[in-house]
Please model this.
Amino acid sequence: MNFPALLIEQLRRAQNLVALTGAGISAESGLSTFRDAQTGLWSKFRPEELATAEAFERDPKFVQDWYAWRRENALEAQPNAGHLALAEMEKRAPELLLVTQNVDGLHVRAGSKRMVELHGNIHRFRCFESDCPSDNFDIENGRCRSCGGHLRPDVVWFGEMLPTDALETAITAAENCDVFFSIGTSSVVYPAADLWRRAKDNGATVIEINKDPTPLTPLADYSFLGKAGEILPALVDQIWIHQTKRAN
Ligand code: APR
Model:
């Protein structure tokens, strides 16, 4: 795969990079996205029945079981070449902040260190009723031993606020980066879908890597339509690895 020479130059000169990822980067690890027709989770399940506090109040066990099923899938999955390429980019680029909407934990398992999880992490729990400290959780039975309440996954549900620190870190990084990647996300869920605009308004080069066109496609400086697990390794190779080899 060949990339425009200007893009190669811009990426080689870049000092501060931000990469926003969505469910698409985990698709090649066998995990469903949310909105892909037929295969997306929201084509099979109704988010309002599973990913809201009201749904949990109505039927905690039903929601806990669904997240247990997703947690199992995430644990069985392996990071793919796209996750690994971003971990490599972190090692080779001057500064890269990875901002993920994914709750599957695959970026951490791929070796990414400098990252924020905007929508939480499915492998962590919270006490639903009283937000008790997590040292007294009965995870197997989905109960908080401190108050007897239910344990919910530590993820952001529809209608809930994002974790303040993570969001502020992501906004500050987007407003100070010189390159912003949007990878494997449909760019329709806010506030994550607004980060590219903050970067653009600050003069950053915006690069989209996505299987299908999104609202960002006509607005990005570069949009590569295809699989993240194919495009990202090729990009990292051409920008950083090839250059090193050529220099030696
Ligand atoms: N490589 C790159 N992109 C891909 C791949 C792939 N292999 N497979 C699918 N995609 C793209 C799809 O074309 C789609 O545009 O990934 C995108 C996934 O979009 P969504 O399913 O909407 O997922 P995401 O953008 O992460 O959703 C945002 O919505 O449901 C909530 O909290 C949930 O974090 C999630 C948020």
User: Anything to note?
Assistant: The beta strands are 16-21, 95-100, 115-117, 120-127, 137-138, 143-144, 151-155, 179-183, 205-210, 222-225.
